[in-house]
Design a protein that fits this description.
Layout (H helix, E strand, L loop, with lengths): L2 E12 L2 E7 L2 E3 L3 E5 L6 H8 L7 E6 L2 E2 L8 H4 L1 E4 L11 H13 L16 H10 L15 H14 L4 E5 L7 H14 L4 E5 L3 H7 L2 E6 L2 E6 L1 H5 L2 H10 L3
Parallel strand pairs: 4-9, 4-10, 7-8, 8-9
Antiparallel strand pairs: 1-2, 1-3, 1-5, 5-6, 10-11
Helix pairs in contact: 3-4, 3-5, 4-5, 5-6
């Protein structure tokens, strides 16, 4: 497999503080790749750099070999990169189906045509229902999103990100705050959708990482500590020391 995402000496400074230091990340096409590390390791900053919420101090970001270092956040979905957030981001007053249809509007290029009647989106119903079926929310399509449990809101967020048909899906702590049953549901969704796209995720739940991920990058103090599969990473003395010293991120 070729590389879908690559960083070259990616660095971010905030004044005198260097949050990310010369990170060389390589994400293979079709993989589930995790970014983990103890608290303060630079995971969130790296993720924000990759998704263009921050601009790097130096270094490059390449997507499918194309330099996207200077891209803006709104440019990424068009390129094929979509991000979900640690805190579920859905429209609570809209129904579950309407949330997905709004995301699907991008495919029709009518996202900014606010004067269109809602009925003009009816052509998206079948696609929306298909996505809701895939994430286990078909029976909830007509209720307001705010009425969903937290775990089902996370599933809805995954449906809305998939509605944008990303080639690379970036997940920010997809199982954060979930109970055991919901963790299993989200993990199964991730595994299912990884069959047709590449996933990069920041994740604290190491049991999820161990069961899902093909490759793991461990950050500490803004730099890559070690990379490899779960068995290699979990047995590395430097990784054990980093986690024992500061607790799990």
């Amino acid at each position: 497999m070729g590389l879908i995402l690559e960083t070259r000496d990616l660095t971010k400074r905030f004044g005198a503080f260097q949050a990310v230091s010369n990170v060389n990340l390589k994400v293979e096409q079709g993989a589930i790749h995790a970014l983990i590390g103890p608290n303060g390791a630079g995971k969130t900053t790296t993720f924000n750099l990759l998704t263009k919420f921050l601009q790097p101090t130096s270094g490059q970001i390449l997507f499918n070999g194309r330099d996207i270092t200077s891209a803006q956040p709104q440019d990424l979905p068009k390129a094929g990169i979509v991000r979900s957030f640690q805190i579920s981001a859905v429209f609570g007053e809209m129904t579950v189906a309407q949330n997905v249809r709004v995301a699907l509007q991008r495919q029709l290029k009518i996202a900014l045509q606010f004067w269109r009647p809602l009925s003009s989106l009816s052509q998206l119903n079948d696609k929306a229902d298909s996505l809701l079926e895939a994430v286990g929310l078909r029976d909830f399509r007509s209720i307001k999103a705010k009425e969903l449990s937290y775990g089902r809101k996370r599933a809805l967020e995954i449906a809305t990100t998939l509605a944008m048909d990303p080639e690379l899906l970036l997940l920010d702590e997809p199982t954060s705050g979930l109970g055991h049953e919901d963790v299993d549901r989200i993990a199964a969704l991730i595994q299912s959708f990884a069959k047709t796209r590449t996933l990069l995720m920041v994740e604290h739940n190491l049991s999820v990482v161990s069961s899902l991920c093909d490759r793991i990058t461990v950050l500490t103090r803004g730099s890559i500590l070690v990379e490899g599969n779960y068995n290699t990473v979990s047995r590395d003395p430097a990784v054990i020391e980093a986690y024992l010293g500061t607790g799990h991120a």
